[in-house]
Amino acid sequence: MKRALFLKTCFYSGLGLSIMPQFSFVSFQNKFSRNQLIGKGNPDISGDSYTTKMHKDASLAFKRMQAAAAHSGIKIELVSAYRSFERQKEIYEGKYKRFTGQGLSPEQAIEKIIEYSTIPGTSRHHWGTDIDIIDANAPRPENVLQPEHFHGKGPFCKLKEWLNENATLWGFYEVYTDDPNRKGFKYEPWHYSYAPVSVPMLKEYRNLDIKRILQEEKIKGSEYFSNSFMERYISENILDINSELL
How high is the pLDDT of residue 116? Predict the structure, then answer.
């Protein structure tokens, strides 16, 4: 058994290195435009549907990770990948209208939205590097993206165990971990990011004037994005993530 585990580890490690010979965040030389960083157009996105559109490098690494998982009886299925600025705006503003229509103040509505959803222009899914995944070979619950499905006797616990051991070999890291000291978005065991691209993108994203951009884009409720709110949102919801992705 030990020898089999050793051979498996060597195989996956070798495969991971062979497909990522330049697995260096520092050496990634691309410069990213404002529009790329906020989800308003990216020439590096490939794919033709909501669940296949990804950054071309992330897509290649994902397909190879998917093939490796298949050897363990796991069929990794994409639930969500690239999400445009306009799509995120639809999601955010739909919730904003609903919550304010229910009697919440604009500030209360915004706070409720950002428990689970990002403000358009601030989503990691804009980069094409981040994916939400499940195991298509497991029984499919009605609401697939729930933390309890990935632990204990949940249908996707086998997938989560495999990812814990192998995802980083292909450059994928869990974003919103279950660290009790982490703030911002709640724990998402299904959300992984392709670090070789997302790390340099985040580095450049941090140079943007996010508040000014959101007001220029006329996001509903953006007039309530005070300096203190934006400082907290950036600190907790954008930067309080897995330290491997900073």
Answer: 84
- Structural domains of the chain, with CATH: 36-245 (3.30.1380.10)
- The string of pLDDT tens digits covering residues 110-132 is 999 998 899 999 999 999 999 99
d(CA 6, CA 196): 26
pLDDT band per the 50, 70, 90 thresholds, residue 30: low
pTM for the full predicted model: 0.88
Alpha-carbon distances of 142 from 20, 150, 155, 188, rounded to whole Å: 36, 14, 12, 17
- Sign of the C-alpha dihedral computed for residues 156, 161, 163 and 164 taken in this order: positive
3-class SS of residue 89:
helix
Look-up of token digits 């639809």 = 90
C-alpha dihedral, 162 to 145 to 243 to 114, nearest 10°: 180
**Residue 185, CA atoms < 13 Å, CB-side half-sphere:** 24
